[in-house]
Design goal:
single chain; about 450 residues; alpha/beta; Aspartate Aminotransferase, domain 1; Aspartate Aminotransferase, domain 2; 2 domains; 7-stranded mixed beta sheet; 4-stranded antiparallel beta sheet
Length: about 450
């Protein structure tokens, strides 16, 4: 199967214009010792039917939540997606990689982003929101950089050790080359971030707390805001489960300066880990510090409603070395998907879904305890929680995957070595009572 459209005649014609006698001569500028002598071992091309069969074989090696019951969250959650969402988002008006560099011509794109930003601010209780980022990790790293640039005297940012491990790693990747440092805040025996260590912590530009945290527990954001105010530093919150705010008070109600989060739960399939949707919102004071785009609504010369690119850092497109952020694109399709989801389920729907998540997680926890699991934290949680498992659980868990198509929790020891035999469980609205009862029966 051919993948290159150029014929032999096309190639000869282009070489003639470029002043070369062969394709090899195009690479004469490269020293011989840097060129491969043996060539590259690439298989012959496949026919269209052979290629389809090969891709199906590769896909069959993956495990999808449709066939398996998944009791794992940890930053990627299985939720029902209304049928209208994939239908609408697959329309040609939306499914495009186009970025509007002449934005006022793209009124549909601008209105979609405007509606997305409006609903994100309502969900999080913030003043403004950007046009989305790649995922929560990159959005959180951008928030940390904002805090560090604001306070020129500080070169550290305090981050809860109960922030998602992958997100903390992304933050380190972003800020370490710039000479900044992350100071991790330990957690208490209650599975919450230890606020007491912040009192004697100096040289920090901001505090970043995830709630619900990686253990699923709900942090006391009001208390952390008070510490941030006393130190006159920025208070940053993050989250991995956006639907939690259908039930919990949003970060804005606790005075968060910047909120970074993952929007995958808002109508976006898990897709084996990506792509996600980074949400980034802030107060009016942070308007010119937030990277990305801000869309506004206005009227044209005839008095008709229109949408405009209100703010965008020019250096992101041109003088990139001076940019506050080099992320100048956004997950536009996923942002549009999230906007459609929020508009479809509405405020009442989000609350109902969140309530189902919490109630099913409570039922799962109570029944696992009856089956011999030990509750680890006596702390309010949303839809995931930590349990200490019996010694024979690991083998049962492995058998359940292959024998019953059930993923029974995630082992925490690789992320927190002190938590041997501890597992993180999750239940969303996609898990039924019979699913929970079957899991409990199998692990007894």
């Amino acid at each position: 199967m051919r993948y290159l459209p150029h014929t032999k005649e096309d190639i000869e014609s282009m070489l003639k214009v470029a002043g070369h006698s062969s394709l090899d001569s195009l690479f004469d500028c490269i020293p011989d010792d840097l060129k491969t002598k043996e060539g590259i071992d690439i298989q012959e091309g496949l026919s269209e039917w052979e290629l389809n069969a090969h891709m199906e074989d590769l896909a069959s090696a993956n495990i999808a939540c449709k066939e398996y019951k998944c009791f794992i969250g940890a930053g990627s959650y299985d939720h029902y997606i209304p049928a209208i969402i994939p239908y609408l988002i697959s329309r040609s008006e939306f499914m495009t990689a186009y970025t509007p560099y002449q934005p006022e011509v793209s009124q549909g794109t601008l209105q979609g982003i405007y509606e997305f930003q409006t609903m994100v601010t309502q969900l999080l209780g913030m003043d403004i929101a950007t046009a989305s980022h790649y995922d929560c990790g990159t959005a959180l790293a951008e928030a940390a950089l904002i805090a560090l640039r604001k306070d020129r005297k500080a070169n550290k940012i305090a981050v809860s050790s109960l922030t998602h491990p992958s997100h903390r790693q992304i933050m380190k990747t972003y800020i370490s080359p710039a000479g900044y440092e992350i100071v991790e805040i330990p957690y208490t025996k209650n599975g919450l971030t230890d606020i007491s260590v912040l009192e004697n912590m100096a040289g920090i530009a901001g505090i970043a707390i995830q709630s619900p945290n990686f253990f699923g527990n709900i942090e006391d954001l009001k208390a952390f805001k008070a510490v941030a105010e006393s130190k006159r530093i920025l208070f940053i919150t993050s989250f991995t489960e956006a639907l939690a705010y259908g039930l919990l008070k949003n970060p804005g109600s606790f005075g968060a300066d910047i909120v970074a989060g993952e929007g995958q739960s808002l109508g976006i399939a898990k897709s084996f880990g990506g792509p996600g949707l980074g949400l980034l919102a802030g107060t009016h004071k942070q308007m010119r510090n937030l990277p990305g785009r801000l869309i506004g609504k206005t009227k044209d010369a005839n008095g008709d409603q229109g949408f405009v690119l209100t703010l965008a850092t020019r250096e992101q497109h041109i003088r990139r070395e001076k940019a506050s952020s080099n992320i100048c694109s956004n997950n536009g399709l996923n942002a549009m998907t999230a906007a459609m989801y929020l508009a479809t389920v509405g405020k009442i729907g989000i609350r109902e879904i969140a309530l189902q998540n919490h109630d099913k997680a409570e039922y799962l926890k109570a029944n696992l305890e009856k089956a011999g699991f030990e509750p680890v934290f006596d702390t309010p949680f949303f839809n995931e929680f930590v349990m200490k498992a019996p010694l024979d659980f690991e083998q049962k868990r492995a058998d359940l995957i292959h024998r019953k198509c059930i993923f029974a929790g995630m082992h925490l020891e690789p992320f927190y070595p002190e938590l041997k035999h501890h597992y993180l469980f999750c239940a969303t609205e996609t898990i039924s009572k019979s699913d929970i009862d079957q899991l409990v029966k199998e692990v007894q």
